[in-house]
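TICKET: design request
STATUS: open
ATTACHED STRUCTURE:
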């Protein structure tokens, strides 16, 4: 295979028995050298040449042949299985160590299932390629069936841990701490929050109200900086808060380099009841879950289906979240509003019929452009889009220049390491931050390039847009269900951005920007 570039990689360093032997001889002859330092230089040179991004360096201080004797290799394999990197850079395949046939299978399996490449100065090994098993020496000593057994046994280890009531997730669940024996103990600050969430939901508060309440209290969510409704549902549904450990609800694997999740039927889950201290009672848990389910079904109850024709189309012009439809008993018309607490003080809601009307008006204006002569139309569009394309091309040139600078900074980082100006730690930090910036610049360039392509494509298709918009306008009001209307709008609208400032008091005082879907 051609040698890959620009991958996230680990470096693995280990001395073989032979290396130890030679170092000793050299020492006796007064010409001592350090094998690992030599290997490290060589591998870093490879990484520099092929433009990889070093995520970590694993250096085995002991020279054991077996995995059980090599803590660094074990830790690295664990991280590989989690999909941390795309490749491991190593002097040769044997450095990973084959140990015995069990080790060979374990190592092979970790690389194969996580789709991680083994990169050596002379070859690149893809464990999913045909013949890789043979190269790795697995097939010759381990039959396929045996490998399956090993897999099962390793999975079994995790399943057994779950059965023993140990928490084996990457992070302990919100509300708990984890002790050395992998048992969960209530977190002094988070556990009361979990209980509060259950109480609020059981008391009839919706997820939106809970989120608002938590944010107003300044409580930090498990991830990010704002509480999400999905986090609340996740907590309410999680039986870990009853003291149970449940494992194996989902299977994770990588497909074409992407992580994929698959649901596992409940009968295959591993359950360990009363594994740790509960945070909520069964009663509170059931109440909250019933309340949550009741609310969740509300929008589509009685088979009404989608009730908002602008669902998924109209978005908050401040935070870009989809606007949420709410109904209140005292108002005949539903309202659309942004439920992000941060927007509460700057964005107001709008009555659905008004927003709907405004969107259609905007489409009409778009269609009216056809009253211009064909020539005028194409001339005006041409001017406009040339301008956009030119601006984007200028931006690309700018980022390409930045990219060149970043590449030379990356080069400098390697030199600083060689000259020992940078410690390894400083180098890794520096290297990582530069690599991140390189990735960012590259993705911006490719985004701009595809935007230019899209723009050019749009110009080509411009002529057909107007008739399509017309057709939507003619048919819209004859459609019966909001679902059909939603579908029709989505056929030509990418999104609608909405703004209604707090001081805009008139009902129809709001702004929208319709972003059409191009090409149609
Ligand atoms: Zn918003």
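STATUS: resolved
RESOLUTION: sequence designed for all positions
ATTACHED SEQUENCE:
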């Amino acid at each position: 295979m051609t040698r890959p570039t620009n991958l996230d990689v680990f470096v693995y360093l280990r001395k073989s028995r032979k290396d130890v032997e030679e170092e000793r001889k050299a020492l006796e002859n007064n010409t001592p050298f350090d094998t690992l330092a030599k290997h490290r230089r060589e591998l870093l040179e490879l990484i520099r040449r092929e433009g990889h991004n070093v995520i970590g360096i694993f250096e085995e201080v002991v020279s054991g042949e077996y995995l059980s004797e090599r803590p660094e290799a074990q830790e690295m394999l664990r991280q590989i299985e989690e999909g941390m990197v795309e490749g491991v850079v190593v002097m040769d395949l044997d450095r990973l160590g084959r140990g015995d046939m069990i080790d060979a299978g374990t190592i092979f399996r970790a690389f194969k299932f996580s789709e991680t490449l083994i990169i050596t100065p002379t070859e690149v090994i893809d464990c999913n390629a045909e013949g890789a098993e043979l190269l790795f020496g697995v097939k010759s000593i381990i039959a396929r069936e045996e490998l399956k057994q090993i897999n099962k046994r390793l999975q079994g280890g995790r399943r057994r841990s779950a059965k023993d009531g140990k928490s084996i997730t990457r992070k302990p669940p919100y509300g708990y701490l984890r002790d050395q024996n992998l048992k969960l103990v209530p977190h002094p600050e988070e556990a009361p929050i979990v209980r509060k969430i259950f109480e609020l939901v059981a008391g009839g508060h919706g997820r939106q109200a809970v989120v608002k309440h938590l944010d107003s209290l300044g409580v930090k969510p498990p991830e990010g900086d704002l509480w999400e409704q999905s986090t609340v549902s996740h907590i309410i549904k999680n039986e870990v808060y009853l003291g149970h450990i449940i494992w194996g609800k989902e299977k994770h694997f990588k497909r074409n380099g992407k992580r994929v999740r698959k649901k596992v039927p409940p009968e295959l889950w591993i359950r360990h009841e009363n594994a740790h201290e509960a945070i909520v009672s069964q009663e509170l848990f059931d109440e909250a879950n019933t309340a949550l389910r009741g609310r969740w079904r509300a929008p589509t109850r009685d088979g009404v289906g989608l009730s908002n024709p602008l669902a998924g189309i109209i978005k908050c012009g401040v935070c870009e979240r989809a606007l949420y439809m709410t109904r209140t008993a005292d108002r005949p018309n539903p309202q659309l509003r942004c439920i992000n607490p941060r927007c509460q003080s700057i964005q107001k809601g709008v009555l659905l019929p008004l927003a709907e009307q405004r969107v259609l008006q905007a489409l009409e204006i778009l269609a009216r452009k056809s009253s211009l002569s064909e020539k005028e139309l194409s001339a005006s569009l041409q001017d406009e889009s040339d301008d956009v394309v030119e601006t984007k091309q200028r931006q690309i040139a700018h980022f390409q220049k930045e990219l060149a600078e970043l590449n030379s900074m990356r080069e400098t980082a390697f030199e600083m390491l060689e000259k020992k100006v940078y410690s390894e730690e400083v180098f890794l930090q520096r290297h990582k931050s530069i690599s991140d910036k390189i990735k960012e610049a590259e993705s911006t360039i490719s985004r701009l390039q595809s935007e230019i392509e899209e723009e050019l494509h749009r110009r080509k298709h411009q002529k057909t847009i107007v008739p399509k918009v017309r057709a939507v306008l003619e048919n819209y009001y004859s459609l019966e269900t909001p679902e059909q209307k939603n579908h029709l709008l989505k056929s030509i609208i990418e999104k609608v951005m909405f703004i209604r400032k707090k001081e805009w008091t008139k009902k129809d005082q709001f702004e929208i920007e319709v972003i059409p879907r191009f090409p149609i």
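CLOSING REMARK: The mean pLDDT is 81. The first strand starts at residue 8 and ends at 13.
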